[in-house]
Amino acid sequence: MSENEHEDAGVREQSLEVIRHKLSLLPDKPGCYIMKNREGTIIYVGKAKVLKNRVRSYFTGSHSAKTQKLVSEIRDFEYIITSSNMEALILECNLIKQHHPRYNVLLKDDKTFPYIKITHEEQPRLEVTRRVFKDKGKYFGPYPNAFAAQQTKKLLDRLYPLRKCKTMPEKVCLYYHIGQCLAPCEFDVSAETNERMVQEISRFLNGGHDVIKEELTAKMLAAAEELNFERAKELRDHIMNIDAVMEKQKITTADALDRDVFGYAVDKGWMAVHIQYMRQGKLIERHVSLFPYYGDEYNDFITYVTQVYSDNPALPKEIFLPPVPVQSSDAPAPAAEVAEAGAPTQAVAQAEAEEKDVREALESWLKVKVHIPQRGLKKQMVDMARDNARNALDEKFRLVERDERRTTKAVENLGEWLGTGTIRRIEAFDNSNIQGTNPVSAMVVFVDGRPDRKEYRKYKVKTVVGPDDYETMREVIRRRYERVLKDNLTLPDLIVVDGGKGQISAAVDVLENELGLFIPICGLVKDAKHKTAQLMIGDPAEVVPLPRDSQEFYLLQRIQDEVHRFAITFHRETRAKSMIASQLDAIPGIGEKRRKALLKHFGSVRKIKEAEVHDFKPLGIGEKLASEILKALQGEAAAPQE
Question: Tell me, what's the pLDDT at 10?
Answer without folding.
Answer: 58
